[in-house]
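In response to reviewer comment 3 from the previous cycle, which asked for concrete evidence that the modeling workflow produces usable outputs, we include below a single protein chain processed end to end. The sequence was submitted unchanged, and the resulting C-alpha cells are shown without manual editing.
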Amino acid sequence: MKGTLYHIVRDREINVGDYIVAGEEYNHFAKRLFSADFQVEGVDINKLIFTKDLNHFTEREGKMTRGYIYESCAIIRELILENYRLMHCPHLPSRLKCLYACQTLEQAQSWIPALERMAKSKSSVKIVELSVDGEIFSGDGDLMTRSTHAVFDKFDLAKRYWTAETTPNEILFVGRAKVVRIIDEK
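The workflow returned the following C-alpha cells.
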C-alpha cells in the first residue's frame, strides 16, 4: 500500500524528511512492555504480595502492585494476540513490530488522551503525517483493553480483532514511512 497515514510520536525527536522503517525489530511499545521489571527495593512484587499483608503496603508498594496488574493484563493480551496471529494469519503485520498509525488526522487526535493517561511522565506528543509504502492491517483497537477478562474471552477478542469483525480504528503498518509534515505538538 502506498499512501498517507498519521502516527503519534512521543518522547523522541523527529523531523520532516526522517524515515521510519517498521516490521523488522520490536517496536517501542513491545520493548517497553516486555522489559518492565516489577520490583520494590529489589523485592519481586509476587514475593511481596505473598509475604506481606496488603493492608500494610507502603504507598510505593501499592502503586507498584497496581502497575504490575495493569501491565500484566497488557502483556497477556499482546501474547494472546500474537499467538492468534501466528497460528491463523501469519501474513498480517505483528502488533509487536509494526508502526501504529491512523487513516485520518481525527483518528490520531482521538488516541492522544488515552496515550497521555498511560504515560508515566509528561511527554511531548507530536502527530506526524507519513507517506508510506508497505503493508497495513486495520483492526479495532477498542477491543484491546487492559482488562481482567477470562483468557478464553481474550482469545475471542483476538479472533474478532484479527478477522476485523468490528469497526477498525487503528492501523498496523510495516514498511517504510517518510515524515512529510509535523501536524501537532503538545
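Residues 136 and 173 are 5 Å apart (CA to CA). We consider this sufficient to address the reviewer's concern, and the full set will be provided in the supplementary archive.
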